[in-house]
Amino acid sequence: MPNSRWTISKHGAAGLAALLLCAGAQAADGGEAWRTDASLEAWLYGDAYRLTSPAPLPQKQYHAEGRLDLTLRRDALRVELAPRLNWLRACPPGGADCRSDGQASLNQGYFSLASGGEQLAAGREKFSWGPANFRSPSNPFYFDSGRTNPLADTPGVDLARWTHSTGAWRLTSAYVSDTRTLAQPRQRDTVLLKLDRQGDDALASLVFSQARSQRQGPFLGAFAQYTPDDAWLLYGEASAQRRGAATAARWLAGAGYTSAAGRVWSAEYLFNGDIGEATLQADPAALRGRHYLWASVQSNPQELERYWRLEWTRNRDDHSQGWALYGERRLQPRLSGFAMLILGEGGAGSELGGVYRSGATLGLKLFLL
C-alpha cells in the first residue's frame, strides 16, 4: 500500500517477553493453578471533520484496532497484559496523498505481588488516580487521563512501585523510568510519593514527585473527595510546580450527582495556571486558556444494551465552546455500533472553535472474547 508503514515498539515487545518469562517461571513451580481472564475486541471506525483551520490537518480518518486485555492470577502473583494493534489511514482535504500507519505496542504489561498490607508492582501500568474527569491536576503524568473521550485507550508508564497499607492509611512510593507512551513533555527518572487517607465517606491524598532529568522544581499535588449520601460526590484536585522563575498552579472543583435510575450528572471548573510558552511548545495539544467550565450527563454506565453521554466544554478566556455527543448500542450479542458527533464554536484562532466546526465518527465493536 502506498504511503503506509508498520512499526513495533521494541520496549513493548521486551516488556511482554519479560512478563511471559516471569509467568512461565512461576508455572514451573508447584502451588495453585493459574486463573485467567481475557477479553479481545476489534474496533473499526471512521472520522470526518469540517475543518476551519488552514493547518495541514486530516479531514477523514479510518481506524482499525485490536485490543486484548489478559489477566493471569496465581497465589499472590498477578500479571496484566494489554497488547495493541492499531492501523490508521489519514486523508487531507481533497482525498489526495492519504497516508497509512500501523503499530503494534504494549499498552499495559506489569506484574504485582501482594502480601498482607504490602504490594510490589513493576512494568508498564496506567498510574492514574483522582475523581476529576475533564483534567486531573493532582497527577504529574496524566493531566489528561482520557476520561472525556469514550474512544480513548490510555496507555501506562514504565515504573516500579511499592504500596504499604495499614488501617485507613496507604503509602505508595514509585520510580517512573519513562513516560514515552504519553503525550509530551516526556518525563524520565521520576521519584514519586503518594499518601492516601480513606474514611467511611471521604478520601484525601497528597502527592510529591521530582523528575531528575528535568530542570524544574518538585511537583506537589493533592485531591479530596466526599460523598455526603448515595447520590452526591463532591471533589477537588490541585497542584503546584516551580518552572523557572514562576510557579505553575492548577486546581479543579467538581460535583457529581447520580439519579435513582443511574443517570450521572457532573460539572467541573478548572483553573489552569500552566500556559507558559515552554509548556505550549513542549505539548502543542496543551490547554491554552486559564479558566474552563465542563459539564456532562450520561446514561447508566452499568446498562449493557445501550449507553449515551453528552459533554460541554467552555474556554472562558476566548469564549469558545465545544459539544460532544456519544451513543453506543448492542446490535448482536458480540457486536455493538457507536457514533459520536462533536461541534466547535468560536472565532478564528480560538481553542475550541478554531480547528474544526464539526466532526462525526461512526464505527463497530466486535467482542471476540
Written as H for each helix and E for each strand, in order along the chain, the element string is: EHEEEEEEEEEEEEEHEEEEE
Structural class: mainly beta
Summarize the main sheet: 18 strands, antiparallel, barrel
Number of contiguous helices: 2
Q: Would you identify the regions where 5 or more consecutive residues have pLDDT less than 50? A: none
**First CA to last CA: what distance?**
30 Å
Radius of gyration: 22 Å
Portion in beta strands: over 45%
Q: What is the typical, i.e. mean, pLDDT?
A: 89
Categorize the overall geometry: globular
Task: Compute the number of strand runs.
Answer: 19
Estimate the helix proportion, in percent.
under 10%
Defining key terms:
globular; 369 residues; mainly beta; 19 strands; 2 helices; 58% strand; 18-stranded antiparallel barrel
Description:
The protein is mainly β. The protein has two helices and 19 strands. The protein has helices spanning 10-28, 277-282, and strands at residues 4-8, 35-51, 60-74, 77-91, 99-115, 118-125, 157-166, 169-178, 188-198, 202-211, 219-226, 232-243, 246-258, 264-272, 291-298, 306-315, 321-332, 335-345, 356-367. It has an 18-stranded antiparallel barrel. Strand 15 and strand 16 form a beta hairpin. It starts with a strand and ends with a strand.
Task: Give the topology, please.
Elements (H helix, E strand, L loop, with lengths): L3 E5 L1 H19 L6 E17 L8 E15 L2 E15 L7 E17 L2 E8 L31 E10 L2 E10 L9 E11 L3 E10 L7 E8 L5 E12 L2 E13 L5 E9 L4 H6 L8 E8 L7 E10 L5 E12 L2 E11 L10 E12 L2
Parallel strand pairs: 1-5
Antiparallel strand pairs: 2-3, 2-19, 3-4, 4-5, 5-6, 6-7, 7-8, 8-9, 9-10, 10-11, 11-12, 12-13, 13-14, 14-15, 15-16, 16-17, 17-18, 18-19
